[in-house]
# Entry
Amino acid sequence: MNSNYVSLFSNLSVALDTHKAYWQSHAFREPELPWRAQLPDLHAALLALGDESLLELESDAGALQRFTQDYVPGQDALLKMLEGIPSLLRSPDEIPSEMRFFAKHIPGRKWQQIQYFSAHTESRGKRFIDWCCGKGHLGRYMARSRAADVLGLEWDQVLVDEGRDLARDMVEGTMDLQCCDVLSRETVDHLASKDHVLALHACGDLHRQLLTTAVLKPMAAVSIAPCCYQKTRAERYEFLSRQGQEQALALRRQDLHTMVQETVTAPGAVRRRRIQLQQWRLGFDLLQRELRGEDTYMTTPSLPQSVLKLGFKGFCRLLAERRGLSLSAEPDWDHYETLGEQRFAEARRLDVLRLSYRRALEVLVLLDQLLFLQEHGFQAELREFCPRELSPRNLLINAWRD
Ligand SMILES: C[S@@+](CC[C@H](N)C(=O)[O-])C[C@H]1O[C@@H](n2cnc3c(N)ncnc32)[C@H](O)[C@@H]1O
# Structure
């Protein structure tokens, strides 16, 4: 058992527990944040941020953390712990020209992520399994570059068929794809004990299932770069490792969502429409608090951007109807629309504190998963495998049995 990971997990869990008021409260849901009295200077500094400075912080996770740690006692020590995770970077070797033909079937960033993933993953089994493989781009790359046998598991038959077509002309290595729900019991029938399972960006329950399967079936190795931790049936993160189960911290689904929350980097018009929707939601939130006489956030269904056509009044009427709320008197719509815009500007600024804990929360969850594998006889390491610009989900657990 690697004791560095054991102590890193334990220290991080204690520190995050101490700081939980800062990452659990959500500025978009709570107009009055519980940390305001403890961190008045940060509260004021965030509200004073100009639009340009805010955008700069939102688009640079490192700058955002440097900003908050000047105001939050102990945050610098907490963030320093993350330096225990090796950051890159072994760059992929020069890609041989015969491999480059792959790129034309693969979206640009995915192609680069695959090369980095491969550069950080040693072959440790008799066969690779590409877990939730989509069209099997990663598997095909591994089959071809290492003359390996690969089996891709994917539940969408259309992707399986396309993946098989793409793998047809392989000269060295083989790639087959099977249509299967990896959450079903039958999955283990596809696996053999000397398999090395690869999972690039398999969401919540999908990578969790791999972890629990890997310890039941004596697999040779797993290499997992998870994403979308919040896509899980459980309301809370269920710690897998013994150490995780014994510590005090609890993570709700919304905290798992915090881990992957990025600022919208969509093109101008899309971004403006998303902002407009968020402003309206906050306007509606203030209205519903008054109508219900209850100062609490009410969750509302997600709606397509086309609802913008309804205008603010129609939007509120729709949400009220969906949530069974009566709008008998005619509210002052302009007033609530303006309040929504003001709340949005404030909430976006104050939310910077919560976002500064994203990486620490993600590392905690990955350490839990790594420790779980260690507890079941795997050697394991956690590292960054690609630059953040290629994917913010750039952490990889490599685990293998001796
Ligand atoms: C985020 S994509 C990742 C695909 C691929 N690994 C990549 O990095 O390009 C997740 C994939 O998991 C598949 N998937 C979702 N649920 C699944 C399940 N229960 N069993 C098998 N595949 C599933 C989806 O169809 C999708 O292709």
User: Anything to note?
Assistant: The mean pLDDT is 92. Strands lie at 127-131, 149-154, 174-179, 195-200, 221-225, 379-384, 395-400. Residues 97-251+359-400 form a domain with the Rossmann fold fold (CATH 3.40.50.150). Residues 110, 132-134, 137-138, 153-156, 159, 181-183, 200-202, 206 surround S-adenosylmethionine (CB under 6 Å).
